[in-house]
Amino acid sequence: AFPWRMMLICAPLLCCLAGMMQGVYGAGSCQLMVKFIPGSVYQAGDVVIGGLFPVHLMAPQPETEFQSEKVNAFCEIFHQRAYRWLQAMIYAVDEINNNPDLLANFTLGYLAADTCLAESITLLTAMSIVTGQEAHLAKSECGSVCLFLFYILTVSYSNGHSYSSQVSYLASCGCLSDKRRYPLFFRTMPSDAAEARAMAVLLRLMGWAWVGLVSADDDFGRSGMQMLIEALRGTEVCVAYNEVIPKDYPKMRIQRIVKTIQKSTARVVVIFLKDMDALFEEVVHQNVTDKQWIANDPWVTYRAFSVPRYVSSLAGTIGFALRKADIPGLGAFLTRINPHSPNSDPFVKELWETLFGCSLSGGLGQTLCSGSELLTALGESLYADLSQLRVTYNVYKAVYAIAYTIKDMLACEPGKGPFLEGQSDMKQPFSLSQIAHYLPKVNFTTPLKEWMNFDENGDTPASYDIINWHVTVQGTAEFVTVGHFVPVSVCSSPCPPGTRKAVQKGSPVCCFDCLPCAKGEISNKTGSLECVRCPERFWSSSDHTVCVPLQLDFLSYGDTMGIILSIVSTVGAALTAATFATFLCYRHTPLVKWSTNTVNTIFMLLLSLKLCFLCALTFIGQPAAWSCKLRHTLFGISFVLCISCLLSRTMVVLVAFHSTLPGENLMRYVLICVLWLTLAPPRPTERDSMDKRGPKIILECAMGSVVAFSLVLGYIGLLACLCLLLAFMARKLPDNFNEAKLITFSMLIFCAVWVAFVPAYISSPGKYTVAVEIFAILASSYGLLLCIFAPKCYIILLRPEKNSKKHLMAR
To answer: In this predicted model, what pLDDT tens digit does every residue of 582-591 receive, in sequence order?
Structure first.
């Protein structure tokens, strides 16, 4: 959250000087320089871990005249977060020393120094640690353990500075992954390459295809932006502009860049910077409020920008931050310090005065600190803030990586690994190749249950929190974790469920294609080699991950079509019943008397029509043995009775009052039905069918005997044709006396419906076959009801003056 700059010279120099040291210093002479390095914290141990931290952000100005040595020069601007990182290193060392299962009978020490965020002090401190001396320091005696202690410290176990180190907790430049240039460099900070890939994935997933890029003119900015552009190559994301901010942050140049951002039609701006103050000051000044900012790790959780002054421009910012951790016990450890404690380090006094705004020395015009103030009662402070433990966790992991490396070295058997014969005592010095043998292979789980190792480039697995800036009711920004991102490096991504692996010809086994499972097959595990066929009466789901029962297809009362046909059938039966009641109520009127004649065929016709409407209901629902027999029997009887009644009435017209009951025709049909139900009755059956949604089981009623069904339809058709012919012959008789014309119209509709029924029935799939049959039944029934009885009901109910013997006998 402050201006980090990269210094890449330190790590190679450490390796070089350490290599020279191996032949320079003997076992009997080395220097304990901790008290000579200003701003350092030291604790002895079998192996001492060195750490460089920017506890201050501004170094004193150097003496440029070279005439005298500058004295009483102190670093300025105390950095509470960096001091928390230093304390996290100490806490991790203490935690490891108190764990007998990790390094039994072995003690770690530490040497932590302040670099003041200056290259010169960083290099001087590093060289002091490496060489064990300064120009005017006297030597002190120590044994071979001391020599080995500093050898290990400087070669591999320096828990390095944020600029560069052997095990770095903050250096993120992708260039440091080059093992040819930095063979002994390792880090717990993810490479910028991983964050660039994460940004590219975010842009693609959000559909942001027109973006602007802003980066710094340094290794971090140039490398990060180059990797982002490379990750976006070949995608649908296009770059509107690519602005670079010079190192000295010139005001005119920043004003021009912000104007470019404001005028561009690109609503999304990707930032690869570590020092954002100058840019965002100008953004606020020019009132840029309509941009979606994509933040990189250094500033996405920087609380200085969460105040209302910036929120109007930065609200909604989304970006990637190191995974947040909750280190148990660290909070109590941070608040244990006291300026009056004999074990307090040189930084406690300045921390105390910064936190409580007082002076321990009681300077002029300053409030005197008592030293008994409570850190726990202070409230929020950058030092004790545990809500964003990200870099702090990197330091914690770096110390544990060193500890597990030492554990692996202690477990080495004589003559095994990189050690020479008989060389396995930690008190003996080791070569760079021996150190390099163990650190890259370290593999462990942290106390927070996170697995950690270094890859071939010395990098740890990258893992990010996706942070979104939400505006609070107070007008400040709240950093909300809305997701996580863990990049992977594989030739082919694991095949998801529903697919199987297919090896690419001529490629390694880790390169493969993912082919979807065939129809009727599934795979329910990631990375399946084969798909499994579903058992009988089951089929694969749409994503081919589970077998689901085959769909049973039949016309049910719950289907929309079933509901509509049921309503139409019920309405037809109700209209028929109402007509029956009307004729029964007006049975003594002339019209009804002429219609019923002497044998009451009109009531038999209405009864048969009601059965026609009701028999349609037996075709709806899941087929069963009784319903299959009932539906066709009731269908045939009702229509034979209906047509027979019409045929009888037509004969009445032709022979003038001579009529017969339709019982003879009905008995012939009943005989056919009895033979059909006895010899080969209809029965429920199942058959498989395939449509665009997959296979299904169609439940239907098989005819049993096609001949019998043909005879039934043929017999009904014969009666209908005969009735139509006779009615057509009698159509010119006096209108007021006979109903031949009405019967002719009704039979024309009946015959037309059933002629059209045959091709529609044959070509309809599944339950639509039954629907076509029901439609034919209802259409022909409504045709008979309306053509024959609607005119009569009209006269009976609405034109009673025509319901008289005089009117009927007028012609």
So the answer is: 888 887 887 7
Distance CA 777, CA 756 (A): 12
Query: Which is it for the CA torsion 680, 683, 686, 689, positive or negative?
Result: positive
- Contacts of residue 387, Cβ cutoff 8 Å, sequence gap at least 6: 324
The boundaries of every CATH 3.40.50.2300 domain in the chain are 34-62+72-189+336-358+378-413+427-449, 192-323+463-485
Q: Residues 751-794: pLDDT tens digits?
A: 888 888 888 888 877 778 888 889 989 998 998 888 888 888 88
Residues 393-437 pLDDT 10s: 999 999 999 899 888 888 876 656 666 555 555 545 555 566 678
pLDDT given for residue 215 in this prediction? 92
CATH class of 560-659+667-809: mainly alpha
Cβ neighbours of 578 (radius 10 Å): 11
* Angle (deg, nearest 10), helices 767-798 and 740-763: 160
**CATH numeric code, 192-323+463-485:** 3.40.50.2300
User: Closest by alpha carbon to 54, among 121, 128, 2, 114?
Assistant: 114
pLDDT per residue as tens digits for the range 473-496: 999 999 999 999 887 667 777 888
Strands of the sheet containing 268-272, edge to edge, are 238-245, 210-216, 268-272, 292-295, 318-322, 464-471, 477-485
Sequence-distant (6+) residues with CB within 8 A of 605 are: 642, 645, 646, 649, 788
Structure tokens at 463: 């893992």
- Assign 471 to helix, strand or coil: strand
- The token duo for 523 is 């795979």
What CA–CA distance (Å, rounded) separates 391 from 51?
A: 14
CATH of domain 34-62+72-189+336-358+378-413+427-449: 3.40.50.2300
Alpha helix stretches (DSSP H) within 656-705: 663-679
The tokens describing 253, both together, are 């140049």
Tell me the pTM: 0.58
Cα–Cα distances in Å, from 68 out to 36, 63, 73, 123, 320? Answer: 20, 8, 13, 21, 48
pLDDT of residue 259: 94
